Amino acid sequence: MKPLVPFLVTAALAGLFPARAQIPDGARYVIIAPDSLASAVQPLADWKTRKGALARVVPLSIAGSTPEQVRSFIRNAWNTWPLRPDYLLLACSPAQLPGYAYDDDSYYGDMTGDYRMEIAVGRLPAQNRRELEMMVARCLAYERYPDSSDTAWYSKGTTVVSDDDSFFPDPYYLPDSRYARQLWLDAGYTVAESLYNLAGDSTDQLVAALNDGRTFITYRGVAGGFWWNPFNTFVPDYTWHNRGRTPIIISATCETITLRPGEDELGNLCMRFGTEESLGGAVAYFGTSQSGMSISAPRSACYRGFFSALFVESISSLGQATLRARARVDSLFHQHDRYVEWCLLGDPDMNVWTAAPRRIDVRHDTVVQLSEPELVVTVASGGRPVQGAVACAWMDTSVYALDTTDASGLATLNVDATLTGTMQVTVTGRDLRPYEGFCRIASAGGPFVTHLKHVIADPPPSGNGDSCAAPGETIAMPLWVTNRGDSAAAVVTAVLSATDTLAAITDSARSFGDLAPGDSAYTGDDGFRLSISGQCPEGRTITLNLRCASGARVWDSHIYLPVGTPDILLTDTSVVEDSGNGNGRFDPGETARFIVSLFNDGQGTAGHVRGILRSYDPRLVVTDSLAGFGSIRKQAGVSNDSDGFEVRAGRMMPETEIPCSLFVTSSGHVWSFGFGVIVGLMAVRDPIPDGPRIPPLYWGYDDVDTGYAEHPGFSWVELRNAGTRLDLGDNQTVQLDLPPWFGGFRFYGERYAQFSINANGWVAPGFTTYTGWNNRRLPYPLGTPLIAVNWDDLYPPMGGGIWYAFDSAAHRLTVEWDSVHYRSPSTRFDKFEVILFDSTQAAADGNDEFCYQYRYNHNMKHSTVGMQDSSGLVGMTLLCDSVYHRAVAYIAGNRAILFTTDPPMVGLEEGRTTLDADRFTLQAWPNPARGLVRLRWNPGGEAARLTVSDVAGRTVLQSSSIIRNSTFALDLRSLSAGVYILRLTAAGQSATQKLVVQH
User: Fold this and answer.
1) Could you tell me where the beta strands, DSSP code E, fall in 667-720?
2) Predicted confidence band at 397 (pLDDT cuts at 50, 70, 90)?
3) Cis previous bond, 236, omega within 30
4) Which of 345, 357, 674, 683 has the most CB atoms less than 10 A away?
5) How many domains does the chain contain in total?
6) Domain match, 742 and 858 both
7) Among 289, 313, 322, which Cα is nearest to 121's?
8) Are residues 392 and 529 both part of a single domain?
């Protein structure tokens, strides 16, 4: 990636303004995007610049790879750029750039360090080029090309309320919704409807409203990831066909936006739904990324502040309206969490429609003279002047001017042009249909001959024939000149020169004859000729001067000649299922076509492009590794749809990521790209890995994961009147010493001799005085390891109490919360327990296992179920505030969940083979394996001995004792990577299994 020149708009305005443009330094609108997706967001940057918000696209390689680095870049821009940013758009998925602390995008707009935002921040959470191009097209369709055939939907809005207590309804939900609807009605809305769960309304009605077209859809009520029953099924799917009628959704409730990599919640899905052709889903989504209790009031303040900004204060910018909403929260409550939890998915500079877009009558001169630098623009609608409209004029390298219309609808732009040409004129404003027109700058009082256009011809043998200048080439430059003046130019001649020592002009003069006003002339196909030095660096722009003359009159024109070779980027990958179960994804055991998209970000054409795909894991076999892409011109992209690679997936855990490389070649150039191919999709009947590290250590298996040997069975251990009762008060923690026979408790490699039990549904290995009742998604830095069985604000004095019991015969410690009541509502209670197994029952690597069991689930709406290590950086969340991990079954009565470091044998999607009960058979998993492998055989219980041989037949490992169980863990860390043969013998019988060892 080329370095960014300070204070010059060299990224966002490429093709609009060359680096020498006489335009303001800095930018009002900064867009940060992954390097490979920067070109996909360029059309939005171009439009923002055209309407007056000078835009600049900054790749992540320059802005930074972490939230801290990116904010540092933005702060530097805000403090040093002459034209400093008002808006920031993160065109990044959370996987590409997460929110700060995984839930805060406000962080990027805080320029002074007090958590309050000075810059309006929005995010387009696209995961790939296709999604980003769709989101950009949707933003442009909403703001630049508003629908003129169907304007009724611009005056329609829907509020949605879901209250979970009909006896004591929330005091804010319904009043807030009425407040919004009254503002809509006062603004002339024809539809301002209310949907309410306690009135019997449903998702079907809401989807019908969406498809009919709504400018706003709002939600107040209970939520967590998705809205609450019955609106929990309001999720983008085939029933959504709102096409270009895309609403702004306001979700004033607990988190429905996630800024964590790999997660999906309602807001993210609404933004990613749709295609460039259909443009469905939502154009923007304003909601929260955090959950909590008893915080309806600050959510109400933000909800009302947002609509007050739009309909009372007449703010038209989406981002500015969100800043006003946050300011209301801060002024009333002054709570950091309630301020930063709000996130905007969408374009922060977008003009929000609060009424059907009005057509405007824009008048301005179609020609201005170089000697008269003012352009007067008048704006009216319905015969009345329009105040506050923004007029912007720009042209090539020399003009960028703005003004706002006054009470008489008049704007005066100082165009101050130094060259003739055509300016683009744009007018935008609150509820105004954008105007786009042109105005020509001319020279009065004689001829004015300048460069019009040129082409590059570089045929072999002196060039590579890609119509681009490259180091070491000799090129021809045919060009056209034009007379922009009002008089004829007689006997026009032109001389081309270069001040750059890396370019030599070898044929510099041409004659064009007489040129009438507005006419043009051509050099002929041979044109001027010049040679580019072989030492010319990639990406250099050579400045040429074309001096045209007619008699005593002379005119100079600059020509900017970029020099370079191709530079290929990998912009997207996708897998197309060719044969398999027909579910549209690449699952274990299936064969598929692998499609990649390439983009040429260089200054030369890449010819005869070929790709070679390599897999570095035997579980993913590349059966067709070659693909042709043809030629890729500069700033163009292609994919190998018609010549896809072919890959076959073996047996593995769903969502296993296989490392691969793509090598791309073109005329002596080679590019290599590393990436991962994800096979399968984790589902309810799969175990949950911890994270975010790879590979996982702990896995969570619930009792429905019947395709895995490790899944538990439910077997309730009742402790009431059978164990020891702990008289715990509210939020109290007590500590227990583990008896010697327990062997300590080894958790994430650390061994603990004590255990702490808390009133709020969790235990902690070791000694802790932590008493937390405010549950969090795990991992979270709490200063203690945590085993969260049902972490919520519980009140042990009500209910059957908290019990524990050590059982040496069963090798376990059991802790039971016996029908303990919740703090809110205090009438509800749940019964659950955790069983911690001693060191004799440890997993193959020595870490101990534990199991959660639930007798029933009456009120686990706001609970956290999960676990984490002592650092608070590794763990897993199965449930948090009603949001389930996709591999977790709903926690109903008689549910069991086992946590172990024994890895999955195989998932259901992998087509697991079962052992034949009638034959002596051997099975190893995982295969390929790293570190440890587990073995299983039939018939179980037979005395057996194991040997491991290399491919030459040499014994490299054998069991040191007779194996008497039906499962066995084998340590492979002493073996080199390669293929081995396992042989198990017992009672005169033997079974073999091939095993691939990786490190």
Assistant:
1) 669-679, 688-689, 699-702
2) low
3) no
4) 345
5) 7
6) yes
7) 322
8) no
